[in-house]
Amino acid sequence: MTTKTKQGNKMKSAEKNDRFVWTRKHLLGLEDLSKQELVHILDTAEGFKDISERAIKKAPALRGKVVVNLFFEDSTRTRNSFRLAASRLSADVLEFTAKGSSVSKGETLRDTARNLEAMGIDIVVIRHSAGGAPYLLSQCVDCCVVNAGDGFHEHPTQGLLDIFTMREARGDLAGMKVAIVGDIAHSRVARSNIWGLHTLGAEVFLVGPPTLMPAGADQLPVTVCYDFDEIIGEMDALNMLRVQFERIGLPTFPSVREYSRLFALNSERMKRAKKDVLVMHPGPINRGLELESEIADGPNSTILRQVTNGLTIRMAVLFLVNQAAAEKRKPEA
Ligand code: CP
Known about the structure:
alpha/beta, Rossmann fold, 6-stranded mixed beta sheet, 5-stranded parallel beta sheet, 11 helices, 16% strand, globular, binds phosphoric acid mono(formamide)ester
């Protein structure tokens, strides 16, 4: 069964300008970004692609700047990707992990950030289990803040790299049908994808068991579907989400086997999909649970391409927020 729940487009102030100028010194989510802003990030990332293909993979855009990776949750892809992106733009990078820091002595997020800021940092990249932590930080520091994933709220650079990968493969997002499949309730990746894809004109389908749909799904600009087989044949991209066992309290489906039977992408289910469907996953993958290994490593998979594109997207984001901060510091003429 499917339920249509479209939300009207909001008026986007930046779209009114003929000559677009990026003005945000923080990237906290994709929900508030206009189409013009999203396209500007994607186009900026496109321009950074060639740096990674050079013999000397460096550009001077952030020379003399300091980026701190403030991670209160584990990460493989996002943390290393931000680190490498900052380093490719010639910034100095400070790595912070809650374990081994004064957070264990009770220091607050605000105090931690303000003390790091006192050392002269320019950009904080933060991952935190609490939704809204990056926003809170943006209210109490002068430097730029970039959200690297906050609770169940948003993971904007993951959303952007997913969208960049789809645009790279298809050219235009408008009219694309994208299914986000699995544990939507606990997924910040799903939320950033929903907002970004909707603003760029794609049609988003949320697929999963009712117990893994978020509260208020009917307020999102999506079509909700509980039967994967009903819609798989129409989709241009399948973004398979990880079942986040560490965030699920009580069991939300009868068994792992039952979940896989209904919602996993396996060879049998792939037969019903379009031949050129994009198979996506933000990682880390529960191989054999939401995605069969043969499909994850197969010809339709964009999973490693997404990781490669993540570096380019993060270079663009670091570059743009720093540029906006520099503009704001300029004395008025
Ligand atoms: N996709 C993603 O956020 O992966 P990490 O948790 O490894 O950063």
